[in-house]
Amino acid sequence: MGRESARLSSFYGVPSRTDSRLRIAVLADSDTRWKWGALTARRLAEQAPGAEAAAPELDGFLLRGRATPTPRQLAEVGAATGAPREVTMAQFLDLAGPLGSTAAYDVIVLALVGGAAQAALHGLAARWPGHTRRPVVVTGYVGVVYEKLADGLLLRHGADVVLANSRHDASRFRAVYEGVGADASAVTEAALPFLGGAAYAPEPGRDTVVFAAQPSVPESRADRQYLLRRLVAHARRHPGREVVLKLRSKPGEHTTHIEEHPFQKLAKGLDLPPNFSLAYGNMGEILDRADLLVTVSSTAALESLHRSVPTAVLTDLGVREALGNHHFLGSGCLTSWDRLDAGHRPTPDADWLADQGVAPGEAYHRAFDQVRARMGELLSEESLPPIAPYYTAATAPGYLPGILARHHLAPDGTPLPGAAPAHEPTGLRRLVRDAVRDAARGAYRHGVQRVAPVIRRMGEL
Known about the structure:
Layout lengths: L2 H6 L14 E6 L2 H14 L12 E7 L7 H6 L8 E3 L1 H8 L10 E5 L2 H14 L8 E4 L9 H8 L4 E4 L2 H13 L7 E3 L18 E5 L8 H17 L4 E5 L16 H4 L9 E4 L3 H5 L4 E4 L4 H7 L4 E4 L19 E2 L1 H5 L8 H6 L6 H4 L3 H11 L20 H7 L20 H33 L2
Parallel strand pairs: 1-2, 1-4, 2-3, 4-5, 5-6, 6-7, 8-9, 8-11, 9-10, 11-12, 12-13
């Protein structure tokens, strides 16, 4: 084993120099993906029992775009690792390592939407085109995978490790790759990295129902108004119960999905009962005082189930792929507001929980063993093969170039001219640039949340 590989594998119980530190970069494009990426990086750096190594160096980067989170959103997700730096794709590739040079990082975690992940993979492949010492590239999903399974997976193909959040997902992921004749060996079973917190314990006198809102589920104004009316009616029906509407973002902020009809705006002007409230903040802290979690299909349901908090997945708007609640078929959690109003509390199916990687207890602590073993193998290699995504100029000539172009990359994965400025502005120029950029984002979000719905309504007249 060479000096470099010995240094890298020290995190997995292999003796090496005492000054070794695993260098990890996380590139994310939204608040929830930053949370997943940063916490996944911590899981990847967990040491084998008895191993002694220095804490990893972790650098965070936010991919510049419409969903770039605000400082408030970053603080809320509960994955503090220092302030991440906002970059373009080309700038990140330069920071990862100049063409053909030694990599700046040992591991790169791509916490990105599918198209951005594919662009990053091709960009990194162009950096290190042959067998060489390059970063181990890791990617995956932030939560429930209920739509675009094949599209999203094939856009992530090429990473050394494609994390599946459960045994159920691992089986589905491998089936997709094998179905197109792609290498499925990168699929590695793990779990969501942010599950945790104290197990549910009822408290005398406490009765709290939390509804976990989602930015785009359901999508229509009428459906969202229906859910809000039922939530408010539930609060009126049970005046001794605290009813909390847990919101994802404030108006003007964006997540990965566009929220055209924020609940807080729909609630304006309504006669709300005193036991009804709106809340922001870290979901884990909200669950600390929840006695029932209600949602349509939010990943919050998995956090809640992991902690054994009673959890309800609504069927009021149907059980549909577009809503994502079909993912919970067989869970025992599907129910309606009528039944909840009458006092029903769903009982989850234990086998379903285990298959989804959210079973509480020791099983969760062992969920990352396969990842640690896989990372140990990859980091101990003297060189790694070239990054080889399934999508190439030969397999997807009408699809791939457009994906790369959106991130200012040429068809060969190299940055287009002018994509990465030689020098970032500083001082007053940077302040002016940031102010203009924030104003542009605000205008875009105003257009999405205010202007676009009006235009659509006018078109329906």
